[in-house]
Amino acid sequence: MSLQPDYASITRADPNPFKRYLQRKRFEEAIALLKGRHPALSIDYGAGDGELARQLRQACPDGEVICFEPSAQLRAQAVAHVGALSGVTVVAGIEGIADASADAIFCLEVFEHLPPEEMEAALAQMHRLLKPDGVLIIGVPVETGPVAWVKGWFRGRRRVDFDTDRYRIAQAARGDIRFERLRVDFEGGWGYYPHHLGFDYRDLLARVKAHFVIETRRSSPLALLPPEWNSELNLLLRKR
């Protein structure tokens, strides 16, 4: 989820080759967490421009994918990118999707944008939608520990904003994110954090335990190192 007008230009089509590599790896590792499963129905929760759905259709050609994207801007990009693909449906809401209907739910680069109340609501929705034997695959950025300095340096070369403030970066590098994040009202009236700095994956790990069991934790791109030395953390979860 992003408020950027052109999602592809800041992800898979970004001018920086390392950022393009990380985006490719994000999708590859998320799909790899299926571990040979071939879901009949997958939901991409916060689908952006639908690129994950396109790759899921290639990996699981017999399955269907619902792209849930609440942002009208991004939803229009998803329709343009994957709307014509067989087996892919782009939707603005998930209220009409039946309980326990999804074999797999993917939620990549979403939770870092959600305030606590919205995060809890999203987890409850995913629990409702997932089959008892289904899997939830979550990918989030790591914004604490040494990697905070690396990300701050990279972002500072491209822009000046909340994410590039060196005092906040220093706090995050120490594992301390007790600073107020910039919150905006998103479409539909719910809250949204437009920046990444201030997100703490450890808080998410604590919150998911009310609804799910964490089966797999995998840092990326260097799986043998702890999350704080990586840019991403990927999770495979099952319903309680």
UniProtKB/TrEMBL annotation:
<dbReference type="InterPro" id="IPR013216">
    <property type="entry name" value="Methyltransf_11"/>
</dbReference>
<feature type="domain" description="Methyltransferase type 11">
    <location>
        <begin position="44"/>
        <end position="138"/>
    </location>
</feature>
<protein>
    <recommendedName>
        <fullName>Methyltransferase type 11 domain-containing protein</fullName>
    </recommendedName>
</protein>
<dbReference type="GO" id="GO:0008757">
    <property type="term" value="F:S-adenosylmethionine-dependent methyltransferase activity"/>
</dbReference>
<dbReference type="Pfam" id="PF08241">
    <property type="entry name" value="Methyltransf_11"/>
</dbReference>
<dbReference type="InterPro" id="IPR029063">
    <property type="entry name" value="SAM-dependent_MTases_sf"/>
</dbReference>
